[in-house]
Amino acid sequence: MLLAFMAVASTAFAQYEWHKTTAPDFRGKQDDIYFVDEDKGWYVNGTGKIYKTVNGGQDWQLIFEKPGTFFRCIGFIDSLRGFVGNIGTDYFPNVADTVPLYKTTDGGKTWEAVQYKGPVVKGLCAIDILKVPFVNHGVLDYKYYINAGGRVGSPAYLMRSYDNGKTFTSEDVNAHCAFILDIKFLNEQEGFIMAGSDNVLTKSNALILRTADGGKSWKKVYQSNRPYEITWKASFPTAKVGYVTIQSYNPDTTVTTRYLVKSINGGKSWEEIPVADDFSLREFGIGFLNEKVGWIGTNKSGLETTDGGKTWTKKNMGNAINKIRIVQKAGGGSTGYAIGSNVYKLDVKKG
Description:
The chain is mainly β and 351 residues long. The chain is built from no helices and 29 strands. β13 and β14 (168-172) form a beta hairpin. The radius of gyration is 19 Å and the shape is globular.
């Protein structure tokens, strides 16, 4: 059945095309992908596999496999130092690994469990790596803040590092939300948790929390008024403009409108925007090239907007796209990578 959209954009979309890479097809949804530049990237899936490319997705190599682990999220500081999160036990079948976070220092060939101080973390769904410039003995240098959160279905915990991933601490945030689906920091102080309000799905609303003090405190900035809802993934093309997908699991077939939320003031407030009128549609990942142009992955291929989410049209970018990463090219311009049942790459055609 074709998607029934609330509106169809009149803008021509020929300049943005997604094409399938050579990554092996996957039966189901794969969860995360990360690139440190336009060529070098990694992706993970729930069968405990990690793949790597060094030529922009032309070729992919299976570099690590750990049966019994559900790799849910991944992030890298550079071509050698990276982190991968595991969903943990007691949610999906055949997952026996209780380690929430692993790290590598050799580009993903080998991984070791991250040691941390604080309460035990059940599992992770998202990793955010913030690159912060600073003056180091008269030279411009960078430090990296790593924030990881989880998990779907509860409980809600954070793992955080302020020293480039050398040490980590964990924090219990169950007083603020039931579980964490995504996390995003704009700078050292301002950040967001995309969450669900209740671990009982029939009671859950989509929920967004904001911190303005580096995570010392969290404030609710958005909560839907419909049951069976959770947030899923976020995209901030600028420090002011942000988008978050909302998932509905309501079994009532008369509840057909699907939404996302948008902020134009740095996440201080959010507006609901209808995306489609289709009971069977489920939103997953989201990624914006700039304030206007972006995509949503769904269980029915993708959706594209060129007017900041006012209108959407169907876009072929593979099924169940769960994460979309926009990557800056060294010579200028951008590309993108999207992961779901396969990995797709964005071609931006000028003119």
